[in-house]
Amino acid sequence: MSTPTSLRSGLARIAGQAAAIAGEVDRLMGLQQAADQAGAEPAEEADRLAQAMEEMRGMSKLLAETRAEVIGLSPPPMGLGDTLDAVVGETEGAAFEILRQAERAQAAAGRLHAGTSTDTGADLTEVDEAATAIVLACAFQDITGQRVRKVLSTMRAVEARVAALVALMGISPEETQAPGPAAEAKKPDAHLLNGPSSAAQGGLGQSAVDDLFG
Amino acid sequence: MKILVVDDYPTMRRIVRNLLDQIGYKDVEEAGNGAEALEKIKVARYDLVISDWNMEPMTGLELLKEVRGDANLARTPFIMVTAESKTENVVAAKQAGASQYIVKPFTAETLKAKIASVVG
């Protein structure tokens, strides 16, 4: 998740303006107090100015805190999208390698079964080497696992920051229920595109599907 | 028998092609999405379509409806192979005219049995 630069600079500008207004109120308060000491103005005016200054200080503090939370949402050096793209690439590469080696073993085993092998020893070695290559290709899980854990860690941190920001802005849970992506909503079967579902999420096994198909 | 395998993941197309080869079906072609598949189906005759559901720009369900809506293609056996496994998915596919429905991940035996049930 990235934070738009325009949002950050906008918040910074608003916080700066609020601080400037508070400073101006401070200055006016000083003038007011000086006038009070000279016995020229009633205390009621000074109370109103003090109240306004307090509100300005509150606004300035809120904006400064909001700005800090938004800055905390800045993406890490290697973006989450890039990391997940790398995981997709690595898993696809490993799957292709495993398939390639399996097909190599199947071909050699096929020759041995059919009795068409011209070199039995070489074909047996072919099956053995392919099996070893498949074992090695499975090492992708270690690398991708580390990448996914890193993404999860960052996502949890972003989640906490967003929750803090939502609380800070006084946004209710109802307001955070955003509609789904417009592009998907245009597809006639968009409501049926949920991806893989576990049994707890309502996903059916093959036998239950067969029962429905009759 | 000529089979068209439709899936946006090359890995899955290769897995299905490998399984089909093991079962004994050698005449297999591939398409990366529903729109690409529809173009192929309209040009060449296929005895069976094995299609994923969730693809862009045309989904497997949209492809199925196009096939069933075309008098020249309507009788083509169509097996949906997908990770979409909720009741509403299965019902929608059946209503659209799917011949069989296989949930991913699946076994070679399931694929073999479903093909046998739709092509005899």
Automatic annotation (TrEMBL), chain A:
Gene Ontology MF annotations: catalytic activity
Pfam families membership: CheZ
Alphabetized InterPro entries for the sequence: Chemotax_Pase_CheZ
Signal sequence, start to end: none
Positions of the UniProt region annotated as Disordered: 176-214
GO biological process: regulation of chemotaxis
Gene Ontology, cellular component aspect: bacterial-type flagellum
Gene3D superfamilies hit by this protein: Helix hairpin bin (1.10.287.500)
Protein name: Chemotaxis protein CheZ
Biological source species: Teichococcus deserti
Lineage, highest ranks first: Bacteria, Pseudomonadati, Pseudomonadota, Alphaproteobacteria, Acetobacterales
